[in-house]
Amino acid sequence: MTDRRAVRETYDRIAEHFARTRAYAWPEVEAFVEASPEAGTALDLACGNGRHAGLLARRADRVVGLDASRAILGTARERAANEGFSLDLLQGDAAALPLREDSVDLAVYVAALHHLPTPTLRRASLDDLARVLAPAGRALVSVWSVTHSAFDEREGFDTTVDWTLPDGTTVGRYYHVYDPEEFEAAVEASALDVERVYESEGNCYAVGTGTE
User: Fold this and answer.
1) What is the CATH number of the domain that holds 63?
2) What is the C-alpha to C-alpha distance for residues 13 and 132, in angstroms, rounded to an integer?
3) Which are the contacts of 195, defined by CB distance < 8 A and separation ≥ 6?
4) What angle do CA 53, 56, 58 make, to 5 degrees?
5) Are strands 88-91 and 104-109 parallel, antiparallel or unpaired?
6) Which InterPro entries has this protein been placed in (predicted)?
7) CB neighbours of 99 closer than 8 A, spacing ≥ 6?
8) Is the pLDDT of residue 58 over 70?
9) Residue 4: which pLDDT band, with cuts at 50, 70 and 90?
10) What CA–CA distance (Å, rounded) separates 50 from 63?
């Protein structure tokens, strides 16, 4: 898969079922957000159904949720309404963010970078996240890791994992599964100023800031 449109089309197809299976925020994301200073604008990049946007709403005056899939944004809108928090939604490309430079104080980019189908796009996405972060802004990025119990591999690899809909239809989802050293090298090579890289529960995480 080299066409990022396929990522959008995949999530348009599975949006409603996907949203029902993503009820809770990850504890690693909750810990990051709670440890961050209060923010003016927060970004939930590749927001999905908005399960982490509610956390951001507790710390920020404004929360922007961006995703490539219009259908998945509809589930985020519904969640925000049900939970009573304000969420500005944008359909857009994670590798070319429709946001101003230095406009974001706090960001989470959870379990989505690994869906971008080429190294060039993944690097562009990290660089553009750095561009929109304010100099003191903080971001948490997570990807799937070979340390996950689902994998036997020890080096990064590309794969397709089927999503099974209630009617039995399967929809393939592309992943680049990172090994931890590869992920650390990728974020260090990007425009982010990297504070910390670590592993937890089969995922790699990086905390970074915008550049001065």
Assistant:
1) 3.40.50.150
2) 30
3) 138, 207, 208, 209
4) 120
5) unpaired
6) AlkB_tRNA_MeTrf/Diox (IPR051422), Methyltransf_25 (IPR041698), SAM-dependent_MTases_sf (IPR029063)
7) 43, 64, 66, 132
8) yes
9) low
10) 10
Q: Report CA torsion sign: 176, 182, 188, 194.
A: positive
CA distance 144 to 46: 15
> Residue 86 is part of which domain span?
5-209
Contacts of 31 (CB under 8 A, 6+ apart): none
Q: Kind and range of the H or E element at 29?
A: helix 27-34
CB distance 80 to 53 below 8 Å: yes
* Ramachandran angles phi, psi of 104, nearest 5°: -120, 130
* 145 HSE (CA, 13 A, CB side): 21
In this prediction, residues 146-165 reach a mean pLDDT of 86
| Assigned token pair, 41 | 């604008």
Number of structural domains (the chain) is: 1
Beta-carbon contacts of 169 under 8 Å, excluding residues fewer than 6 positions away, are: none
What the block records as the tokens of 32 is 């990051």
Say if strands 88-91 and 39-45 run parallel, antiparallel, or are unpaired. Answer: unpaired
Among residues of the chain, what percentage have pLDDT more than 90?
81
**Gap between the terminal Cα atoms of the chain:** 36
The two structure tokens encoding residue 165: 């809909």
Q: Beta strands 104-109 and 133-144: pairing type?
A: parallel
CA distance 135 to 137: 6
Return the pLDDT at 3: 62
